[in-house]
Amino acid sequence: MDIIDAIRSRKSIRGYKTAPVSKGILREILDVATHTPSTLNTQPWEITVVTGEVLDNIRQGNIEMLSSGATPNPETIYKPFEGKYKQRQVDLAIQIFNLMGIAREDKVKRAEWMQRGFRLFDAPAAFILSMDKSLDESTLNLLDIGAITQTICLTALNYGLSTCINDQGVMFPEVVRRFTHIPESRRMVICITIGYPDWDFPANKVETKREPVDNVVTWCGFN
Ligand SMILES: Cc1cc2nc3c(=O)[nH]c(=O)nc-3n(C[C@H](O)[C@H](O)[C@H](O)COP(=O)(O)O)c2cc1C
């Protein structure tokens, strides 16, 4: 797949076909994606791939935590967004809720939508990216995890697979740890769900907008 096509066509997919993704393909994706550059080639990523019963247990565990009123306990710092960043978050929610037919005041359906994220969008497989806690999460290490995250998502497209980067999947790290045995010494950073896209799923039709290049780029030294 052409690299420009891949970058332009990648989008977050929140509804998947039930078809499983073979271990062989998941391995090939990771074999390619681990070519991602990293700070001084430190390669801070550790990747746990989940499917089948383990993934179902994580979904169930997350929903039990939510139902019990437990507060999400992510291992990365979460600070609520403000200003234009908050506005973009709201715009995304409005788009998705419109597509899903969820009214703004419908708390039940909004909660159901949130649960879907904690069920890892019912995807047939997911990657959990973690890094050793000896690595400082305020430095370039997180940038490296971000870089491989995007590389995984782009590589997946080559196999007809789609992804959704999500932190919801690792917001209850104790649940993920219970079923994957990711050691306490590793910080869970991000989850990527993966599977064959269900194009009939309404939220998959979302078209997120980007700021025009000229709003985010400063040109220096050009005539
Ligand atoms: C670090 C990160 C965390 C994200 N977490 C979530 C999440 O928890 N739930 C979700 O539905 N989408 C999540 N997303 C997906 C974003 O909402 C999505 O990338 C953004 O709206 C742009 O849309 P696109 O991916 O379709 O281009 C996350 C994306 C990133 C990069």
Task: Give descriptors for this structure.
four-stranded antiparallel β-sheet; 223 residues; 8 helices; 13% strand; binds flavin mononucleotide; alpha+beta; 4 strands; single chain
Short synopsis of the structure:
This protein has eight helices and four strands.
Write the layout of secondary structure elements.
Layout: H1 3-9, H2 23-33, E1 46-51, H3 52-67, H4 83-100, H5 107-118, E2 125-132, H6 141-157, E3 162-166, H7 173-180, E4 186-195, H8 213-216
Antiparallel strand pairs: 1-2, 2-4, 3-4
Helix pairs in contact: 2-6, 3-7
Describe the structure.
The structure is a single chain. The chain has a four-stranded antiparallel sheet with strand order 1-2-4-3. With 223 residues, the protein is of the alpha+beta class. Helices cover 42% and strands 13% of the residues. The mean pLDDT is 97. The longest helix is centred in the middle third of the chain and has 18 residues. It is globular and about 60 Å long. The protein contains eight helices and four strands; from the N terminus they run ααβαααβαβαβα. The protein binds flavin mononucleotide. Flavin mononucleotide binds next to strand 3.
